[in-house]
Amino acid sequence: MAKCSKCKKRIGKRHCLALGDYLCNLCCGLLREKEISCPQSCSFLEKHRPYQEKRIIEKKHSSLSRKISAEEDILSDERMAWLAFHIEAPLKGYGEKNKSFRDKHALLALEYAKEKVEKGKSLLYMPDERKGPRNEIAEAVYQNIEKCRYEGKIIIPGATNTYKNEDKIRCLERVMLSVQFYAKGNLEGRNYVEQLISRFSKIEDFARKKKILTIT
Predict the structure, then answer these.
(1) What does each C-alpha distance from 115 to 60, 69, 108 come to in angstroms?
(2) Radius of gyration (Cα) for the chain, nearest Å?
(3) Which H or E run contains 182?
(4) CB 104 within 8 A of CB 53
(5) With the C-alpha atoms ordered 124, 127, 130, 134, is the resulting torsion angle positive or negative?
(6) What CA–CA distances, in Å, run from 91 to 60, 107, 119, 153, 189?
(7) Residues of 149-187 as b/e, b for ≥16 C-beta within 10 angstroms?
(8) Residue pLDDT, tens place only, 161-186
(9) CB 110, CB 175: distance < 8 Å
(10) Region 69-93 average pLDDT
């Protein structure tokens, strides 16, 4: 049996439909829906997704111990609040249109985007793929982060408006904490999603004054 097409060390026991080659069990698990856009017909994806999602949710849930104070909240910085606004905008839009969109889906989308920022890589696509990545909302969050530019009140010649990867990751983790805080242990509900929709409606009311209502 051939070796894994990725690590070149272990035996490739799983045929990857996206790559058209074989992967070992470990590489399949590590790359699945992170560096590889897995098709819905993949039996390994269907079998292991519930387990992976449960692990991510449990990991993030355990990291929330208390509400962040105003003094230490990174979103007290207008520049970071602007990035958070762009991170949450796709979640708000998707939550409005899809009543089945739950807090857990928002959390998983944010984790997906965070992993893409950390790796600095794009998903590998099948040659005939037309519908884009499987996690559509997560990809929308990632694309918004990559396009986001901050325009301060005072424009200094030569100053950069872009965000470092460190900023993006910190802001994504901050929004994840907000999801957990509002979910109150029930990620199957829509507490965060409904709060997000309500907050964005307030942002629209204040839009003419150019204010940003940050996350609580």
Answers:
(1) 14, 26, 11
(2) 19
(3) helix 165-183
(4) yes
(5) negative
(6) 18, 10, 22, 27, 15
(7) ebeeeeeeeeeeeebeeebbbebbebbbbbbbbbbeeeb
(8) 789 999 999 999 999 989 988 988 88
(9) yes
(10) 87
Sole residue written with tokens 């559509």: 136
Tokens describing residue 58:
């449990």
Which 3 state secondary structure label does DSSP give 11?
Answer: strand
Global pTM reads 0.65
Decide: 36 and 124 in contact? Cβ < 8 Å: yes
d(CA 134, CA 116): 14
Task: Tell me the mean pLDDT in the region 118-142.
Answer: 63
Q: What is the pLDDT of residue 49?
A: 66
What are the residues whose beta carbons fall under 8 Å from the beta carbon of 182, sequence distance 6 or more?
103, 191, 192, 195
Both tokens of 165, joined, read 């990867």
* Cβ atoms of residues 116 and 168 within 8 Å: no
Q: Which residues, listed in sequence order, are joined to residue 32 by a DSSP beta bridge? A: 36
What is the residue whose two structure tokens read 């408006």?
Answer: 161
The count of residues in the chain is: 216
